[in-house]
Amino acid sequence: MSESPQNIVLLSADALRADHLSCYGYHRDTSPILDALAEESIQFTNAYSASSHTREAVPALLTGRYPDVAIDSKYNLASESIASMLTKNGFATGGFHSNPFVSRAYGFDQGFDVFDDDLRLGQHKLIALAQRVFDKLRNRHYARAEEINTRSLKWIDSLDDGEPFFLWNHYMDTHGPYDPPQEYLSAYRDHGATKQDLQSLYQRAIKQPESITDDERALLIDLYDAEIRYNDEKIGAFLEALRERDLLKQSLLIITADHGDAFGEHGYYEHPRYLHDEITHVPLLIHSPGTPGRTISTPVSTIDIVPTILDAIGQKTDDDRISLLSPLAKNRNVFSQVRGEKDESHLRRYALRSSEGVGFCERDSDADTLRFEECTSASHRADLEAYIENRVGADDNDTSVESEEVDDEIERRLEALGYK
């Protein structure tokens, strides 16, 4: 990149798997906006999340650290975020989303001048009961992409002319329960199911995946793809708004996802605590004026995004973290991790991916044992074992699975979103 960008724009979509985007080879035309953008961007075809669910994936995305140090044992943010880093470098910082797991209740407002987590009627864990009324009035438990766009553009317009900014928009539309606007769903199917029917189907897919018929699975995929098409269009509208303000050409733009979503490929739906491709392989596009579009197949990680941003503004990290704007080693390994929950809180799963293959392993912290699953080669197993050995100290400090002081209203929203 020839010069430092004035602004940094990070757009992430919740539960958006790469292989359901047409620019990643999907058979449906789900992402025409992102397809066109990919032609002008650095497109990473083998980008993997550091984890498979929001509570560990977003902290890694925002800090550039693996989840075992990015958060504490109760999922509170425990490492410095990119917002704090950029505040120190003179950027105005704004974050806009509606996922309770990365709300101010868990410290994710750290470093943001403005942090809108859609908890509209409260500023801490004690959310007013009127929040429930707010959700009922809009008949949803999250803010649509259009709402996120409106809120974030209002913030941008409030800044002084020429003031550099960092913006993080996180879109929830591709997260279940899938409820796309009818005009997007009609491109794939007509159905007579009610909103309640669809929510019940989604919950059953999570709790009783073996009960889902082929036609029900196809319906869930149609709903998901329609949400992608909606989200794609709204991202396009947001980018057009930046162009109209003459801001896009001054900005480093990064588009990615926190993780993917499963549709029965390994016997489960949604995104539980595993590390298969369908829930870790994510899209990643980096766009900046003056940087030619190209495709990179070398495996990369979402933890590479923070050092990439710092590199773009001329700030070097003091460790071995990798900027995606620099040449990448072709034989690079990238890793993912996820802690177990409830009866599996003593387990942590790990994955390694390289250009040559994969490795999967499960560690039992109670028994202090490793159980290797698929490994392409002995070297993959050795590299994965070395990585795990290096992370064990952090793992053993983080076996607790949940804060016991989460507000009831946040709990209600999490249940509506399929988390509980």
Description of the molecule:
The chain is α/β, with parallel strands linked by helices and 420 residues long. The protein contains 13 helices and 17 strands. The chain has helices at residues 32-39, 54-63, 67-70, 82-88, 130-138, 145-158, 182-185, 195-207, 214-244, 277-280, 305-312, 378-396, 408-416; strands at residues 7-13, 42-44, 47-48, 92-96, 114-116, 165-171, 251-257, 262-263, 269-270, 281-282, 284-287, 294-296, 300-301, 334-339, 347-354, 357-364, 369-375. A hairpin with a 7-residue loop joins strand 14 and strand 15 (347-354). The longest helix is centred in the middle third of the chain and has 31 residues, at 214-244.
Under CATH at level 1, the class stands as Alpha Beta
Helix tally?
13
Superfamily (CATH H level) name: Alkaline Phosphatase, subunit A
Radius of gyration: 20 Å
Helix content: 25-40%
Order of helices and strands: EHEEHHHEEHHEHHHEEEHEEEEHEEEEHH
Pfam family, one: Sulfatase
Organism: Halomarina salina
Protein name: Sulfatase
Domain Sulfatase N-terminal: 6-314
Topology:
Layout (H helix, E strand, L loop, with lengths): L6 E7 L18 H8 L2 E3 L2 E2 L5 H10 L3 H4 L11 H7 L3 E5 L17 E3 L13 H9 L6 H14 L6 E7 L10 H4 L9 H13 L6 H31 L6 E7 L4 E2 L5 E2 L6 H4 E2 L1 E4 L6 E3 L3 E2 L3 H8 L21 E6 L7 E8 L2 E8 L4 E7 L2 H19 L11 H9 L4
Parallel strand pairs: 1-6, 1-7, 2-12, 3-13, 4-5, 4-6
Antiparallel strand pairs: 2-11, 3-10, 7-11, 8-9, 14-15, 15-16, 16-17
Helix pairs in contact: 6-9
